[in-house]
């Protein structure tokens, strides 16, 4: 569970969290909606422990993101919107670096990197420099780094920005599969995108939490339109890819993540080793 209490944070003179209280239970897919995108990134960074609150706290499965940073961090996989893999590394080197930073030993690191490269469809590009990857390949690599260590909770900021329609569909389907065994939190300015993949949606505006809604609640449409209008934007592009596999309406069955070492090892031919 992720719990926030009296959470407050100011970034560059902008109030991005105004005494927020919330609880996000394990086993669901949550959306964080901010039509203008002014606070969602900072809010997700607070959840991930990437920035510290001015006051209040965030607890991840009971671990404070400040006082118990290392323990809380092991529960979280985080993909910020503007994450760029190190350009002078290969995907294999980059994921190996992340695995070492996450505290995996050499043997587990090899297993994790091999499996994630295969899942991300980057096995054939594993020795290319990251700077030579396409936007879609870089996005898949960024998602892969968030999965190193098999975290229980994934926090993704605008996961579909910067890639084409076909790639968006594939990425959303990948996230949908991950949501079967993980708690997923997706931040976006797009209501239609969040509605397509999420169970519940938190609505933020100017650092305030306006409420948590069921993804199918029609009140979200009115709220979204009013927020845009009040900000001087009569219309705001809000489109999501048209998926053949729509958001599942039944609650996902949550199962605990695999323990360290329980990874599938894939050889260079794509076979289980």
Overview of the molecule:
This protein is of the alpha/beta class and about 270 residues long. It has a domain at about 1-85 and about 150-230: Rossmann fold (3-Layer(aba) Sandwich). Helix content is about 30%, strand content about 25%. The chain has eight helices and ten strands. It has a six-stranded mixed sheet with strand order 6-7-8-3-9-10, sandwiched between helices. It has a four-stranded antiparallel sheet with strand order 2-1-4-5. A hairpin with a 2-residue loop joins strand 9 (about 200-205) and strand 10. The longest helix has 14 residues, at about 105-120. The chain is globular, with a radius of gyration of 18 Å.
Strand order of the largest sheet: 6-7-8-3-9-10
Fraction of residues in H or I helices: 25-40%
- Class inferred from helices and paired strands: alpha/beta
Secondary-structure element sequence?
A: EEEHEEHEHHHEHEHEEH
Mean pLDDT: 86
Sequence stretches where pLDDT stays below 50 over 5 or more residues: 248-268
Q: Radius of gyration in whole Å, from Cα?
A: 18 Å
CATH-defined superfamily of the domain at 2-83 and 152-230:
P-loop containing nucleotide triphosphate hydrolases
Any idea what the shape is? Answer: globular
Architecture of the domain at 2-83 and 152-230 in CATH?
Answer: 3-Layer(aba) Sandwich
CATH level-1 class of the domain at 2-83 and 152-230 = Alpha Beta
Query: Please, how many helices?
Result: 8
How many strand segments? 10
User: Might you state the CATH topology name of the domain at 2-83 and 152-230?
Assistant: Rossmann fold
How can the largest sheet be summarized?
A: 6 strands, mixed
Approximately how much beta-strand content do the residues carry?
Answer: 15-25%
Based on the structure, what is the oligomeric state of the protein chains?
single chain
């Amino acid at each position: 569970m992720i719990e926030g209490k009296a959470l407050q944070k100011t970034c560059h003179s902008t109030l991005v969290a105004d005494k927020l209280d919330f609880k996000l239970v394990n086993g669901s897919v949550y959306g964080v909606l901010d039509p203008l995108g002014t606070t969602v990134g900072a809010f997700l960074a607070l959840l991930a422990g990437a920035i510290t609150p001015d006051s209040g706290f965030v607890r991840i499965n009971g671990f404070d993101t400040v006082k118990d940073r290392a323990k809380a961090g092991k529960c979280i996989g985080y993909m910020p919107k503007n994450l760029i893999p190190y350009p002078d590394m290969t995907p294999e080197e980059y994921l190996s670096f992340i695995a070492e930073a996450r505290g995996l030993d050499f043997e587990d690191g090899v297993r994790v990197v091999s499996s994630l490269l295969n899942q991300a469809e980057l096995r054939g590009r594993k020795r290319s420099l990251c700077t030579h990857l396409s936007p879609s390949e870089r996005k898949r690599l960024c998602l892969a780094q968030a999965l190193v260590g098999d975290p229980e909770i994934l926090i993704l900021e605008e996961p579909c920005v910067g890639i084409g329609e076909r790639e968006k569909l594939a990425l959303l389907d990948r996230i949908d599969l991950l949501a079967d065994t993980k708690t997923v939190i997706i931040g976006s300015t797009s209501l239609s995108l969040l509605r397509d993949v999420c169970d519940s949606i938190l609505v933020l505006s100017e650092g305030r939490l306006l409420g948590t809604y069921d993804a199918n609640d029609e009140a979200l449409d009115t709220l979204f339109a009013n927020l845009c209008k009040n900000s001087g934007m009569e219309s705001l592009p809000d489109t999501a890819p048209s998926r053949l596999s729509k958001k599942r309406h039944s609650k996902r069955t949550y199962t605990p993540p695999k323990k360290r070492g329980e990874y599938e090892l894939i050889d260079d031919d794509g076979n289980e080793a």
